[in-house]
C-alpha cells in the first residue's frame, strides 16, 4: 500500500482523476436542484387534503347526503365548493380559483395563511390573494373583501369565500363542483358517487421524475464513462509506472490500480460535497421568484451511495485490466446486437418515452463504436502541417476515451433541449386566436355549438350594430351551418372558388382555411341542406378592435360572466415551467464543465510531450496550438456524435422534432470557450511519469563518479 500512496501523489494521475470531481459535483447538484420541483407525497397531501384523511370530488354544487359517510366511520366532515368561473368582472380576468368552505375549522392549515383582516364568516364575504379594495365585482354579484390570504401552493389569483356565497352569485356561465373531506377510513367515501383520494393514494410522478434523461441515465452512465476517460488519459503513465516498478524489483504492480481507484474515489467524494453545496445554492436562488414551495432537501444517501458504488465498480474493471484493449471483436458484436434492439424499439416506440429508449440504445451503439470511429476521423485531418500530423497521431492513440465521455455528457443536454423545443413548438402550433381578425363570436359558455344567452347578446348589441351571422351546428360532424355562401365568405375572410360554390349548393361541406374556425369546426355547410342543426353562435364581422373590446367590456360591466364573447387576440407565446428550464440547464452545464475538464486534463497529462518538444526547440505557442487543436477536434467529433445520437432517434420514434439550433450553437460555443480557457496551458517540466513514484535507491556511488 505504501507504493499506492506514493503513486497517488503523481500530478498526471491527480489531474486526470479530477474529471470525476466535475462529474460528481454536477450530478449531485443536478439531483438536489431538480428534486426541488417534485413535491413530496406529504406536500401533495397538504395541498389537496389539508388536515383530512380523504376526499371525494362530486360533479355538481348540490349538497351531498353525508349520512352514509358518517355511518361508514367518517368524522369531522367538511364540504367545499370550488370553481374557476368566479373571476373578477373585468375584460381578460386572471385565472382564478374560487373555494368556499367553513374557514373557522381551518381545513387547510399548511396551505392558506391569513395575512390581513379576518376569515370570512357570512355569505357574501371573502378573502383574496390580491386585494383591490373592500369589494370585488364577480359575475352575477359582488363580494365583500374582509382580508387577504397567502396561498403557499399556487401563484393563481385565489378567492376564499364563506359558506352560502356561491348561492348568491349563481347564474348562467358560472358552475362549481363539490368536494367532501373527512377524517377516518377511506372506505367511508363509497357512499358518495366519486373517486376517493386518500393519504395512501399513489400520486402520479412528475415529468422530471418520469424522464430518465434528467438524472437516472446520466447518474449511471457518466461515472462509468468518466472512469473510462481517466483510464485512457493515464494509460501511458500506467504502463511506464508498471515497467518501472518491475525494473526495481517490485512485483506488486496492482498498486497502480489501487492508486488510480483511490484517487478517483477521493475526487468523487469531494465532488459530492461540492455538488451538495451547488444544489443548495441554486435552490436558494430559484426559490426567490417561485410561488409554490420547493420540496425538502431529498435524502442524499441513495444517489451518493450509487455514485460511489458505480464509480468503484468501474474503477475495479478498468484499472484492474490496466490499459489492454477491451476485446474489439466482442465490442463490435455487442454493437451489432444493439442495432437489432434499436430496430425493434423503433417499431414498438410511441411518443417521448419511446424516443428516449431509442436514444439510449443508439447512444450505446455509438459509444461502443467510438474506438473504431476516432482513428478514422483523425486520419481525415490534413497532414500538411506538423501540428496536424502530431495531433492526429495523438488522437488516434488517446482520443477515444475523451470522445466517449464528452459524447455521453453532450447527448442528454442536446436531447433535453430538443424535447423542450419540440414541446414548445407543439404548444405554439396548437394555440390559435379565439376569433378571426375583425370578428366577434358570441356563444354559450360551453362553446360555439351553443347559442348565447339573451342578456349577453343584448349587452353586445349595445356596442355593435348589425344583425350578425346566425349559425347552427352539427355536433356529430363538427360542421357549422350558415344561410348563404356570402356568410361563408364573410366568416372565412375570402372569396369562394367556383368549385367550393358548387359544393355548397350541392349539399357538401367546405373546409375552413382560417385557423380559428378550423379549431372549432371541420367545415361549413348551408342550412338549406340540413334539418337537425342546433342553434349556435352569432358572429359579427368587420368589427374594429376597439369596438370588439367594448363589447366584451359591456358584458363584464353587466356582470354576466366570462367566455361568452370571443374576439381576435394574438396568442401569447408558449412558456415552459421554470423547472423544465432548470432540467435543461443542468446537463448543459455538465457538458461545458466536462469539456473544460477533459481539455485541461489532456493539457496537464501532456507534460512529457511538452517537455520533449521544448527540449528540441519547439516554442510554447506551438505547443498551445497543438493542444487546442486536439481538444477542438475532440469536442467537434463529440458534438457531431451527440447530435447523431440525440436527434434522429426521436424522429424515427415518431416525434415531430424541432431542433433548437440557436441553443445548440450556444452550447457548442460554451464548450469551445471552455476548451480555449482550460486546454491551452501546457505543463512543461521534468518527466512526470517517474517523478515521485518510487523512492530513489540509495547506495554506493560507482567508482567512476
TrEMBL record:
Keyword entries, A-Z: Membrane, Transmembrane, Transmembrane helix
Claim: Disulfide bond is one of the keywords in the record: no
UniProt signal peptide: none
Residue spans crossing the bilayer: 213-233, 254-280, 300-319, 331-349, 355-378, 399-421, 579-599, 626-647, 659-679
Annotated protein name in UniProt: FtsX-like permease family protein
Species this protein is from: Saccharothrix australiensis
